[in-house]
Specification:
465 residues; alpha+beta; Jelly Rolls; 3 domains; eight-stranded antiparallel barrel; five-stranded antiparallel β-sheet; 6 helices; 25 strands; 21% helix
């Protein structure tokens, strides 16, 4: 395809564009944004310059576009700005050697294809506020706008200094077609348009297809990095907590009779590893609202006792049941039993029933899940940051990603791993264990289903439906 060379009289930049049978009126330099009238078909006469820049540009000047099995080139790109508004959109002039041309346009909320039509009936109908009929399709007036050329690059077939007044008519039924009647000073042009989805619109541009491919490669490499990082975090979670990843639970029921101060678990629980957490969750039931309990874990060989004191039974007038949880830390292997006791002598006259579950070992997965969720967020942020600049072109292979900006991805990965280990130490590991009491959970007195705690049981008092 023959080409023409346009050399800017201001900056000297040469722009080569395909030659068409159309006669352009204006040229705008893509380098310095100077504007020239074209006289005698090739002479440039300086007219001024744009102060703005092309907005959200998808294309390159001279870029090849294939449409309906014909080859076209982009010969002009402009950004239009609505008067008295910050709204902008881009327009692309697409032409072939024979002078056949169409237009592509996109803004923040639309993507469209337009072709100029010569229809006097449409022009006449647009002068009224009624419905326009074109090719057996009815179009209703949608809106009118006045816009200026905010910036431009390439060749144009009208005076780009003129503001354009455009009236848009949308298809009445389907809504994906429209008509645009545009007035440039004394000149009026009519266009038939189709709204496209963003994906279909971008696929028309070779540069956008290449960009999508390059971004896809970069994203794949970033996802691979974060997948490997997730695997490392999963392995670290196991290695840091291997001593207590497994858990075993036992459930049972005890009853303290009146005039007894203690009720002891008859039987032993085996702790098979050192430095274990032992968690006791229990539901106490008594009609005495002032009951307080002590919970002890006794080594049956050494008689060493670990005790949590002052576990309060919250009075519940509906079903007399209250939930608690205590934890014993750094318990070494051996045989143990539980001892529950009341610490006030006036409680000796009241029955206390206890349902309990004793859990030895076990590691919460919460911190792992939180870390993996944060890792996904970090992936999205990092991927967005890479793809929003030109650096993604350097990241088409996994080794190139690793070496990016003096091994920045590895430094970020190391920081994530360090944060995970610190969080594991404080939130998950045995080091965060404390002989604590959780008394914030009350048994729901309004619960109407089958009440089951750690074993199926029948309460000694009250209704428990």
């Amino acid at each position: 395809m023959a080409t023409n060379n346009y050399r800017c009289l201001k900056c000297g930049h040469a722009t080569t564009l395909p030659q068409t049978k159309l006669k352009p009126e204006t040229f705008s330099c893509p380098e310095c944004k100077s504007i020239f009238d074209i006289t005698d078909g090739y002479t440039l006469v300086y007219k001024g310059s744009f102060k703005g820049d092309l907005n959200n540009n998808y294309a390159k000047l001279g870029e090849l576009i294939t449409y309906n099995k014909k080859e076209y080139h982009i010969v002009g790109i402009s950004t239009k700005k609505e008067n008295k508004s910050h709204v902008k959109w881009n327009e692309y002039i697409v032409a072939d050697a024979s002078g056949d041309l169409f237009f592509l346009s996109h803004g923040s909320d639309f993507y469209s294809f337009l072709q100029e039509i010569q229809d006097q009936e449409v022009l006449n109908a647009s002068k009224s506020s009624g419905t326009i009929k074109y090719k057996s399709t009815n179009y209703a007036f949608a809106f009118e706008s006045i816009a200026e050329t905010y910036c431009a690059a390439g060749l144009f077939f009208n005076n780009i200094f003129s503001n354009v007044r455009a009236k848009t008519y949308d298809e009445v039924n389907e809504g994906y077609k429209f008509l645009s009647i545009e007035n440039y000073g004394p000149k009026t042009e009519t266009f038939s348009g189709t709204y496209l989805d963003k994906g279909s619109f971008k696929k028309l541009f070779k540069s956008q297809r290449e960009l999508s491919y390059l971004k896809s490669n970069t994203t794949k490499n970033i996802v691979l990095l974060f997948a490997l990082l997730s695997l490392v975090i999963g392995l670290l979670h196991y290695l840091l907590n291997f001593n207590h990843t497994d858990s075993v639970s036992y459930t049972s029921m005890l009853t303290k009779q009146p005039n007894q101060y203690e009720f002891v678990k008859s039987g032993s629980y085996k702790v098979l590893k050192d430095n274990q957490k032992v968690t006791v969750e229990f539901v106490s039931e008594t009609i005495n609202g002032n009951t307080a309990l002590n919970v002890g874990l006794v080594n049956e060989k050494t008689n060493e006792t670990h005790i949590v004191q002052g576990v309060k039974h919250f009075y519940n007038s509906k079903n007399f049941a209250s939930s608690n949880k205590v934890q014993f830390c750094e318990i070494n292997k051996g045989s143990y039993h539980l001892v529950f006791s009341s610490n006030l002598s006036d409680q000796s006259q009241n029955n206390i029933d206890i349902d309990y579950r004793l859990t030895i070992g076990g590691t919460s997965q919460t911190w792992l899940y939180i870390s993996l969720a944060l890792l996904v967020v970090a992936l999205l942020i990092y991927n967005y940051g890479i793809l929003e600049n030109s650096d993604f072109k350097q990241l088409q292979t996994f080794p190139s990603l690793i070496k990016y900006k003096n091994y920045e991805p590895l430094k970020i990965s190391a920081l994530i791993i360090i944060c995970f280990c610190i969080g594991n130490y404080f939130f998950i590991s045995n080091k965060n264990c404390s002989n604590s009491i959780n008394t914030s959970q009350l048994e729901d007195a309004t619960y109407t289903g089958t009440r089951t705690h750690f074993i199926h049981r029948t309460y000694s008092s009250g209704s428990h439906k």
